[in-house]
Amino acid sequence: MVGRAGELRALADAMCRPPAVVLVEGEAGIGKTRLLRAALARLTAQDRAVLLGHCHQLREPFPYGPVFEALRDVAGRLPGAGELNPVTGALRGHLPELAGALPPAPQPLDDPRAERHRMFRAIRALLAAVGPAVLAIEDLHWADDGTLDLLRFLTGQPPAGLAMVVTYRREDQAVARPLLGRAYRHQPDTSTVVLPLAPLDASGVAGLAGALLERSDLPPAFVARLHERTAGIPFVVEEVVRSLPGVQEPDALDRMKAPLLLREAMADRMAGLSAAAVAAVRAAAVLCRPATERLITEVGGDPAGLGEALRAGVLHEHPGGRYGFRHALAQQAVYDAISGPERRSAHERAMAALGAMDSPPLVQLAFHARHAGDTGAWLRHGTAAAEQAAALGDTALAVEVIEGMLEDPGLPGAGRAPLALRLGRLAVTGLSHQRVVRLLRHVLREGFLPDGARGEARLNLGVVLSNQGGDTAAGRSEIMAALAELTGRPALAARGWAGLAMPGWGTEPLARHREWMARAEALVATADSPEVAAAVLANRASFEMIIGSPDAFAVAARLPAGHPCTEVRREAARAYCNLHDSATSLGLYREAERFAERGRRLAAETGARYPAYLLDVSTVRRDWLTGRWAGLRARAAALGELATETPLIAVDVWLVLGLLAMATGEWDEAAAHFQAAGLDAPDDRYVPIVLAAAGGMVDLHLARGALDAAVAEAERAVARLRRKGVWVWGAQLVPAAVTALAWGGRTAAAAELVDDYARGIAGRTAPAAGAALEAARGALAAAGRRHADAAAHFARARAAYDALPQPYAAARAGEGEARARLALGDGGAVRAFREPAERFAELGATHDAARCRRALRDIGVEVPLPRGRRGEPHVLSRRETEVARLVALGRTNREIADVLFLSTRTVESHVATVLRKLGVRSRTQVAPPA
């Protein structure tokens, strides 16, 4: 560990202070594995489980494999099955070695994403049960997306006794992004250490070489030459020094057969091996990844030679009875030294051996076919590998396989066009998009695609940019360009026009979208393509529903959900997911649930991950609207964490998190979430959510007393609503905008907005819009001091919201009614205030509840809050819990007082009680209450 004393100490200390997350990064050969092993060696005397997992360069579609590999040997540390968290039973099918120690498997869930989230929870619970533990995952740069998602989940909420260590090469990442995702934040109660390993300087090279040669007097000129030749990479230094002759002079590095290049150093080490051992080493090099003794033998090795290579330290034993090189550089060095004809023959033998397996590893078969020069087999296995990965939901691997084939200059031109089109088709239903966009753009620049194929590839690029990428402007530009190239392919042109016709995107008015939809339907009528006909019908049904058309349900009834073709049913799945989203916005919640059930079933059947994810996030919004707030914040945050590559498609999640934060007085957090929901670039985001986020932002400005900012936000959002012309989208905007405009002195504009809104939603199937109209009329009347009218309108709004149901909106309308009654001197105002206060409290809208309680106190009515239970002096009361939450967010006493409508002195008293009950001395030690 020459030159790594500080890093070793930091890593070992972090392992002993769980929960901890340690990221060890550096280039190949820099010493990441050796540092990890040295740190783990310091733990041998401690009662701590050490769990090791490895990611491999040639991976098959087996999500979470490295973590399952690490967990297989924990049986001896587990408590009895009756003591384990029941959720760990979900791991029975994945960890057969632990089946006897795990609880019974729970019933399967219909929702694949819920099933995945349960498995994540099960893994976390299992790690908690074996703690204290170190979970080390090596070579994370080769991890599948599922493993990365799982590790992000674990780092977000690590078990108390877990120290997690990952090693990775930053230069080997497919894209320049944090491996644990942008959503990852250093948790305040978790030690987070980043250890970037740099090459050794000259003194480090001297120390390492001296330790290897057992000399402390190496000539400075020799050290300088060694540092220059090896660039200070420890592995290369070691391999070169081990192959040196006895003389340590500068000229010795030049005279030696392998002065620098690792393949020559490895050749020198292999020179002392028998022919059988050399054959085993070469077979292992051809296989590229650790392999069984049998496979190495079938490729050309020898069992006796394998043992010799292991004893010589050229090969090493890996977990699971597999053998390979200590480092990928060593494998590459040996591989490069094999002659071309010998390599080709070995790859042919590898193909035969792997192809004879019960479940042939298709990725490895494609690799060996390519290097054996068998182009037909390469295309066949590579295409099959991509299809298998896509079918298992590992779209990232499918894209990776096709990307590698397309970037290979040896791929025949005739094979490129089908692969490029297959790549685009895979991408439009998956979640991964960054590599797809880069490759499709490269393919289009190359110019080898014929016109029709070029148009299809460009169309897929535009769809991916618009949907998964969230770049509407760039996506629409590509779709428009594709339409010009698809004049001879009416079916694909119809798909393009139908995509542009969706009114939720772009700045065009509704009339333009109608024109585009008519073009799509005219084109699809001339084409014999059930899949495209289904796609256009899906968009027509989505179009009608999103604008609140009474014809929407009749169109939806024609969707081909039972069609025998998977691609056709996939379009129906997409339609049902869109219909769920639109019905949720309209306030048609029973219908939305039915659409969700059909969409989820079809998405699971057809592997449509992108629509399924959209269904999940729009379900979060439906839960917020219908008052299902229990655990909603955590569910929404978990969904957001799973969208690290495509954060812009999770706008429903950010909207809901913003609205929840608004209801609890977390104003800075609410503003940030509303920006992420679409206000950061409103012309490029999904318009219905942008308008809802604008309504939330207007309310936020009003709550903070920033009337001018509220008016400005309202005017911008209303202008966007008018330009689009789909008035049913204003249900969460219009009441707030009318309030801001009317109280800001823009009474005429507020009245005009109410009138326009009433005309715009007339004849539409949109009960949420109808309730919002009554709320807007109530707000306009209240601002004009027409209190009797205001009370009547708010009462009708409350009843309409209750019927939907939208309990939070109903409570807001009830509060408006109570204030109008109070202004009239109505004796029922007290009861009218009590009801929304109680409803807000039940939902968890603490800021709103506090506002109503303040109104009651102002008229002489005290509303006591539940206190902590007697005999439990350390249990926080409801008020203390509210204060503790805001303290944990870093709010000052003055800010807390503003949120909870209390005096600063009262807040000071509550803060002192919170600190005492929690047993902490400082506000900074207060954690958010569960």
UniProtKB/TrEMBL annotation:
Segments forming domain HTH luxR-type: 869-930
CDD domains xref list: LuxR_C_like
GO CC, one annotated term: cytoplasm
SMART domains, sorted: HTH_LUXR
Record GO biological process: regulation of DNA-templated transcription
GO molecular function, one term: ATP binding
Pfam family, one: GerE
TPR repeats: 651-684
Annotated InterPro entries: AAA_16, P-loop_NTPase, Sig_transdc_resp-reg_C-effctor, TPR-like_helical_dom_sf, TPR_rpt, Tscrpt_reg_LuxR_C, WH-like_DNA-bd_sf
Record keywords: ATP-binding, Nucleotide-binding, TPR repeat
PANTHER family: TESTICULAR SOLUBLE ADENYLYL CYCLASE, TRANSCRIPTIONAL ACTIVATOR DOMAIN
The protein's name in its UniProt record: LuxR family transcriptional regulator
